[in-house]
Amino acid sequence: MCSGSFAKCLGVSLIPLAIVCVLCNILLFFPGGTTVEKEQITEQVWYFGGILGSGVLMIFPALVFLGLKNNDCCGCCGNESCGKRFAMLSSILFAAVGVVGAGYSVIVSAVAINGGPQCGIKNGTVISWTYPFENGNYLTNSSMWPVCIEPSGVVSWHLSLFSVLLVMGLIQIALCAVQVINGLLGCLCGDCCGCCGGSDGSV
Ligand SMILES: *[C@@H]1O[C@H](CO)[C@@H](O)[C@H](O)[C@H]1NC(C)=O
Q1: Within a domain: residue 92?
Q2: Which of 97, 132, 142, 169 could form a disulfide with 105 if both were Cys (CB 3.0 to 4.6 A apart)?
Q3: Is there an atom of ligand 1 within 6 Å of 139 CB?
Q4: How many domains, the chain?
Q5: What does the alpha-carbon distance between residue 139 and residue 133 come to, in Å, rounded to a whole number?
Q6: Is residue 43 part of a domain?
Q7: Could you give the CA distance from residue 137 to residue 113 in angstroms, rounded to a whole number?
Q8: Has residue 169 been placed in a domain?
């Protein structure tokens, strides 16, 4: 497979991952599936790791990778190989953008999983909102979860959505890293399927 087609596969895979990350981040604004006050939403949700990092920033590498299949051999300034190399080189730069975006989302998710959600706990007769967990202590001891009485199911909501964000971010990083290698090989080896005026380049 030529490097442009392979990049296209990577680009196609990045898009559903980005959509899932945006959706997870949006759902995190509704802890336990309910609406709460702005100040009651867990702080890390506001860092927009899934929406900006794994979502919007991922659109750029995805589109560039998708475009490589058509552009990788069309040359610049009448110089076929210059254009292909430039396209592969830019795909490496955009892959780096993707790694930064997904890396941001992974770090935010890891911090959020470690810190646990903000929730309402019983404080005498009133409910006060706080972060009852620390250093991931609730991860290994689910008998601590009922400390959060409001909103119901907030701990599993928080944990599962941030876990999905973490895993998706790691997959995005892996895909972008693969494209760095693929792009380098494409640049160095001049691996190319058909050029302008030649075959259509499809495999
Ligand atoms: C788990 O949490 C409960 C409630 O806070 C506590 O009583 C118990 O000692 C904890 N168990 C472990 C193994 O830490």
Answers
A1: yes
A2: 169
A3: no
A4: 1
A5: 9
A6: yes
A7: 10
A8: yes
Whether residue 133 is contained in a domain is answered as no
Q: Is the CB of 121 under 6 A from ligand 1?
A: no
Q: Quick one: pLDDT at residue 180?
A: 87
Run of H or E residues at 154 = helix 154-189
pTM: 0.84
Residue 150 is encoded by which pair of tokens? 């409001």
Interacting residues of 61 by C-beta distance below 8 A, sequence separation 6+: 11, 14, 91, 94, 95, 97, 98, 176, 179
- 144 close to ligand 1 (CB < 6 Angstrom): yes
- In three-state secondary structure terms, 123 is strand
User: What is the secondary structure of 60-120 as a DSSP string?
Assistant: HHHHHHHHHHHHTTS-BTTBHHHHHHHHHHHHHHHHHHHHHHHHHHHHHHHHHHHH---EE
138 CA to centre of ligand 1 in angstroms? 9
| Residue 14: domain span | 3-116+155-195
